[in-house]
UniProtKB/TrEMBL annotation, chains A, B:
InterPro entries: Metal_resp_DNA-bind_regulator (IPR052509), Tscrpt_reg_PadR_N (IPR005149), WH-like_DNA-bd_sf (IPR036388), WH_DNA-bd_sf (IPR036390). Gene3D superfamilies: Winged helix-like DNA-binding domain superfamily/Winged helix DNA-binding domain. This is Transcription regulator PadR N-terminal domain-containing protein. It comes from the Bacteria. The lineage of its organism: Bacteria, Bacillati, Actinomycetota, Actinomycetes, Micromonosporales. Residues 12-85 form the Transcription regulator PadR N-terminal domain.
Length: 106, 106
DNA sequence: TTACATACGTAGATCATCGACATATGGTGG
DNA sequence: CCACCATATGTCGATGATCTACGTATGTAA
């Protein structure tokens, strides 16, 4: 009962902080924000979009039809923003626990 | 290929920052450090101890026999400490990404 | 015409974690 | 005396997010 958000999920939500994005654009934004470290796999992305929508953390705010295929734009909901900030604070606290010791960089 | 350390693993290693501890004591120390939030399940703990030992992140530094049962004390290795600090810095960076926006507490 | 970026999606496998169980001792409360 | 909890180690099956690899389609650059 310790389980929380995993990194791909965290960065997916973080990617939506500025503005609504469609699925594939989220991959690029997450990579950008993480300095290239987080590369969301499409299998992770589309599964997570469905899951987070069902959880009420994100929602579809616009749908375009491009080449006969739906392009959905997702936005953070209020709950999603709250959960993300809570998660960030837990992470900051956990990081502090380790870093206050040796300030030594890895 | 984004996968990193999960929270129980992170707190298991953090619990060993001060001094070597035996398995069960790690549960208490992790709970203490996290303000009661992280409650390591024994299934998680003993599996993780084996895994992290195999990975070279922790090692057995002392063994006592209590009531005919081995009590093993684990310590962080150099690699384990390095990995933990690296993880902490990634977490701090990720947290900053979200918290620099609304300083608003969750 | 081959290949890559864009863009959506599915399917099977992996693996850390979880909940429940098993076992044993020592202490405390009813 | 007996139930329960803390201490302590450990196993087993299930869960669930993520990963790799595949499939489809268009536009564009080499």
């Amino acid at each position: 009962m310790t389980q929380r958000m995993r990194e791909p999920t965290y960065f997916l939500l973080t990617a939506l902080l500025d503005e609504p994005l469609h699925g594939y654009a989220i991959i690029g934004r997450a990579a950008e924000l993480s300095g290239g470290r987080v590369r969301l796999a499409t299998g992770t992305l589309y599964a997570a979009l469905d899951r987070l929508t069902a959880e009420g953390f994100i929602e579809v705010v616009r749908t375009e039809i491009v080449n006969g295929r739906a392009r959905r734009y997702y936005a953070l909901t209020r709950d999603g923003g709250t959960a993300l900030r809570a998660e960030a604070q837990i992470m900051a606290g956990a990081a502090r626990l380790v870093l206050r010791f040796a300030g030594g960089v890895a």
